[in-house]
Amino acid sequence: MLILVGFALVFIIPLALLLLSLSGTELGKTAVSQAKISARSIANEAGEVYLQGPGARKSIVVNYPEGIRDAKLEGGLVVLSMESDGRLQDIVSATFANISGNLSGKRASGLQRISMEYVYPGDYVNVTYG
User: Fold this and answer.
1) Are 63 and 38 in contact (CB under 8 A)?
2) Which element (helix H / strand E) includes 16?
3) What is the pTM of this model?
4) Residue 61 — φ and ψ, nearest 5°?
5) What is the pLDDT of residues 32-76, one digit of tens each?
6) CA-CA distance, 81 to 88, in Å (whole number)?
7) Can you tell me whether residue 103 is helix, strand or coil?
8) Contact 66, 93 (CB under 8 A)
9) Omega before residue 14 within 30° of 0, cis
10) Tens-place pLDDT, residues 5-29
């Protein structure tokens, strides 16, 4: 009986470790996909505010996944830096709008309210938390 239990453990333990490893990899892929969706949402909505012109403003809510370290606005790019699977990577989304603002600093994961306002004169969309 003990020999049978020993053989069962020899096969079950490596199999369980393999399944845990695979599930961690899938969680990392899901977090990266969520970061791509968040960056794309910010870029798309900033473009919409830009097209509406002077006086336009909008607030949106995006979901930052676990691992977000920083967010930046560079030219027409929204860049979310995140740590996934033990490495730091940038998720980038482009917009035609002229954007500026401050999204820097480490943020907690979860829902983030982002405000956008067309600034005139200056002809750009200011993007900030809040």
Assistant:
1) yes
2) helix 2-52
3) 0.81
4) -125, 125
5) 999 999 999 999 999 999 999 999 999 999 999 988 988 999 889
6) 7
7) coil
8) no
9) no
10) 888 888 898 888 888 777 767 778 8
